[in-house]
């Protein structure tokens, strides 16, 4: 079933488990599913699969993401970018080894650069990924109105990039991730560090 506000979706790998309810996407990860190109030399992991569409030349994609408890370490609902196994990025609502939910970003140009951001109280947060000229930006929000800058970055590839949704459960048997209030804006934020920038329903595709 298509999502009315998005282009047609496809999987980056094997067909994953997905359910649609109107404009809500619910993904259920396989056991121990992850994407990581470990910077400390462990074997790369690419057994997660994402539901994606071709990234426009200019856009901002946001969604409220929810992961109900109980949770396992590093499980996450994810907005992701994917060119190939050595060039990708993900913005995660992830469960930390310390037992807290956090916004976490991972940027991969051959090896993964992993960075923790804001702690989140509760089982939901808003995430946003934007294409800004030759680069990309990540933001998070507690309410979908005021946004916190996470990072700006570059993917070192000329390959086409896809954007979309993923669930991961690196240490657990499964992770159920729900994405709703999905909004696709035709332009990125005008100021990446101005938290008042809002993706409005009038700008949906």
Concise summary:
This protein is mainly β. Helices cover 0% and strands 52% of the residues.
Task: Explain the overall architecture.
The protein is an all-beta fold. 0% of the residues lie in helices and 52% in strands. Strands 1-6-15-8-9-10-11 form a seven-stranded antiparallel beta sheet, with no helix packed on it. Strand 2 (17-21) and strand 3 form a beta hairpin. The protein is globular, with a radius of gyration of 15 Å. The model is unreliable at 198-205 (pLDDT under 50).
List the helices and strands and how they pair.
Blueprint: E1 10-11, E2 17-21, E3 24-28, E4 35-36, E5 45-46, E6 50-54, E7 59-66, E8 76-84, E9 87-95, E10 101-109, E11 111-120, E12 124-132, E13 135-141, E14 147-153, E15 162-168, E16 176-185
Antiparallel strand pairs: 1-6, 2-3, 3-16, 4-5, 6-15, 7-12, 7-16, 8-9, 8-15, 9-10, 10-11, 12-13, 13-14
Q: What does the average pLDDT come to?
A: 93
Distance between the termini: 17 Å
- How much strand? over 45%
User: How are strands sequenced across the largest beta sheet?
Assistant: 1-6-15-8-9-10-11
Q: Main sheet?
A: 7 strands, antiparallel
């Amino acid at each position: 079933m298509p999502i009315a506000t998005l282009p047609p979706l496809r999987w980056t790998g094997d067909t994953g488990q997905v359910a649609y309810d109107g404009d809500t996407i619910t993904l259920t990860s396989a056991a121990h599913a992850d994407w990581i190109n470990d910077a400390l030399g462990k074997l790369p992991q690419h057994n997660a699969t994402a539901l994606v569409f071709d990234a426009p030349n200019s856009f901002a994609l946001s969604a409220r993401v929810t992961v109900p408890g109980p949770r396992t370490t590093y499980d996450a609902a994810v907005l992701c970018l994917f060119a190939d196994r050595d060039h990708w990025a993900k913005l995660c609502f992830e469960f930390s080894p310390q037992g807290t939910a956090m916004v976490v970003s991972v940027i991969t140009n051959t090896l993964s650069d992993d960075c923790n951001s804001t702690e989140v109280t509760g089982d939901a947060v808003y995430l946003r990924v934007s294409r800004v000229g030759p680069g990309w930006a990540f933001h998070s929000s507690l309410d979908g109105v005021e946004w916190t800058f996470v990072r700006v970055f570059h993917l070192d590839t000329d390959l086409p990039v896809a954007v979309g949704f993923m669930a991961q459960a690196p240490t657990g048997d499964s992770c159920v991730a729900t994405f709703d209030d999905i909004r696709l804006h035709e332009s990125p934020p005008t100021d990446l560090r101005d938290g008042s920038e809002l993706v409005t329903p009038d700008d949906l595709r």
